[in-house]
Design brief:
Layout lengths: L11 H12 L7 H21 L7 H10 L4 H35 L11 H16 L4 H24 L7 H25 L1 H7 L12 H20 L1 H7 L3 H6 L4 H23 L5 H13 L3 H25 L7 H22 L4
Helix pairs in contact: 2-4, 2-14, 3-4, 4-9, 4-12, 4-13, 4-14, 5-6, 5-7, 5-12, 6-7, 6-12, 7-8, 9-12, 9-14, 13-14, 14-15
């Protein structure tokens, strides 16, 4: 059976020509036109997020609050709950979606995402360790610990997947990520059960929610997330080369190890920052790259740009659904799990049916 992950046997010159043809926009669909449509859809869903919630507030009252900021119960709900969680959704959704694109690109594994590869579990474990061992409670401390946890886990899983291999082994990376993530999640659960103080501090954060009610906390993660996204955009041409295989990428002038390390650093920034402010939220990094790829094609730059908009669109929509379908509201991580689990099963069946794993 042919290994679909192995690079094609062709010359670098032919690769350049075929890749340029594949990345040219067709007359039927314009990538920039779709991007504008997604931007309008995102603006619309952000508006809905501010106007719709567990408590029914008339549109006229919402407009009065936004324009005059009146002192009322409705003002507290809109200004201190709905607006902050919409901003958090924009940041976290974009971060997780771009991180998913990077992980699937460098591993060449369509089932890879920050949750499946244990990156979110690593960030959560380091935050918990800081709470238990160092007594950390502030957002800056959580942010740094989550970043280092995501970075260390990403590097460890990557090296396990490439150990004694000439190139990245998608199956080994997936299995290593699942195993390490399960181990860290089990250890974290044991620690929280034995430590009441840690359990009290982690029980809300660890569930994954956009309802932090404090934009000052989110502001600390803005720069790391922006830097991680910009780094992903900068290395996107090199990732296009890398998708053809490491040998061909080197022939095209790509420094493979440097690009992979830059991608890991970006993943750590994005996953660590988003996990620090909203807790672990799964399946965004798995679903969005596949949706974006259907819209944008194989070009990594367009794929990343689409993911920046699709991630917030999905996570804010999930947050709205969680607010309105239950009296006490359902956390966004639970809603994304309900949507993402069937998608994961479908993708796993597709992948195994074509012999990719």
């Amino acid at each position: 059976m042919t290994n679909l992950f192995s690079p094609p046997e062709t010359s670098c010159h032919d690769v350049k020509i075929s890749r340029q043809r594949a990345m040219l926009p067709t007359r039927r669909s314009s990538p920039s036109g779709k991007l504008i449509a997604l931007l309008l859809a995102l603006l619309m869903i952000c508006t809905v997020s501010i106007f719709v919630g567990a408590k029914s507030i008339s549109p006229s009252m919402v407009m009065d609050v936004l324009l005059a900021n009146t002192d009322s119960t409705e003002s507290l709900i809109i200004v201190e709950s709905r607006f902050p969680r919409t901003v958090i959704g924009l940041l976290v959704g974009a971060a997780l979606a771009v991180a998913g694109c990077l992980i699937q690109s460098i591993t060449r594994n369509p089932l890879a995402d920050p949750g499946i590869l244990g990156v979110n579990a690593g960030a959560s474990f380091f935050v918990l360790a800081g709470v238990v061992l160092l007594g950390n409670q502030s957002m800056p401390e959580h942010l740094w610990l989550a970043f280092f946890g995501a970075l260390i886990t990403s590097v460890f899983v990557y090296f396990v997947g490439t150990y004694k291999e000439a190139r990245v082994n998608p199956l080994k990376i997936t299995l290593a990520g699942v195993a390490i993530g399960a181990l860290l999640a089990g250890v974290s659960s044991s620690i929280t059960l034995m430590n009441p103080m840690a359990f009290d501090q982690m029980r809300f954060w660890d569930a994954g929610s956009l309802d932090i009610r404090d934009l000052s906390l989110a502001s600390m993660a803005v720069l790391p997330i922006i830097f991680g996204i910009l780094l992903a955009l900068v290395i996107s041409p090199a990732l296009d080369n890398l998708s053809l295989g490491e040998e061909i990428a080197q022939g095209l002038g790509t420094h493979v190890k440097l690009v992979q390390l830059a991608a890991l650093f970006s993943i750590a920034l994005l996953c660590g920052s988003s996990t620090a402010i909203a807790g672990p939220i799964g399946f965004i990094g798995l679903m969005i790259p596949h949706i974006a790829r259907r819209l944008s094609g194989p070009n990594q730059l367009w794929l990343t740009l689409y993911a920046i908009l699709l991630g917030p669109l999905l996570i804010i929509s999930a947050d709205i659904v969680g607010r309105v379908i239950a009296v006490n509201e359902i956390r966004v991580s639970i809603v994304t799990a309900f949507v993402g689990a069937p998608v994961l099963i479908y993708l796993a069946r597709q992948v195994t049916s074509f012999g990719k794993l």
